[in-house]
Amino acid sequence: MPRSPRTRSRRARRARAARIEALAAGREVAVPCRARRTTPRGWGAWVDGTLRLPGDHDGGEAAFLVDDPSDVALVTRQGEAPVALEPPLEVEVRPVRYKAESFYGGDAGILVVTTARRTLEVALHGDEVEPVARRLADRG
């Protein structure tokens, strides 16, 4: 029997609240999102995946993991998986500009994460943009 949309949205809200709590507490968290690689010559396609953030006291790097392994080449030229977001990081938040970017609604945001090797745009739910931006900036 299929679940009602109300149940799924309630479950999604609870999961999002738990992720926001983990972000605020500095624990390891995996945030579902979409990402694309940008270059001076343009940008790639949006790819579904998960942004993995290690805990504040854990070692390791933040990384983007693609849901479909065949899409790795769309977000990194080197073809490595997961796509590491190694320090130093420069993190900017920008608003959704186009309808094609509004995966999580018009009030959502896009993180522009720049490292020495790549620039990645990450589309997140509006509630998760600022906490994720703070965590990434603290790691950089």
The CATH superfamily appears as Ubiquitin carboxyl-terminal hydrolase 26/29/37, pleckstrin homology-like domain
**Can you write the helix and strand succession as a string?**
HEEEEHEEEEH
Total beta strand runs: 8
Please indicate the count of domains. 1
CATH architecture: Roll
CATH class annotation: Mainly Beta
**Helical percentage:** 25-40%
- Individual helix count: 3
Average pLDDT reading: 86
Rg, nearest Å:
15 Å
CATH third-tier fold name: PH-domain like
Largest sheet: 8 strands, antiparallel
Show unreliable segments: 1-7
User: In whole angstroms, how far apart are the ends?
Assistant: 47 Å
Strand content: 25-35%
Q: Which structural class matches the secondary elements?
A: alpha+beta
Principal-axis shape: globular
Explain this structure to me?
The protein has one domain: PH-domain like. 28% of the residues lie in helices and 33% in strands. The chain has 3 helices and 8 strands. Strands 1, 2, 3, 4, 5, 6, 7 and 8 form an 8-stranded antiparallel beta sheet that branches. Helix 1 runs parallel beside helix 3. The N terminus is likely disordered.
Keywords:
alpha+beta; disordered N terminus; eight-stranded antiparallel beta sheet; 8 strands; 140 residues; PH-domain like
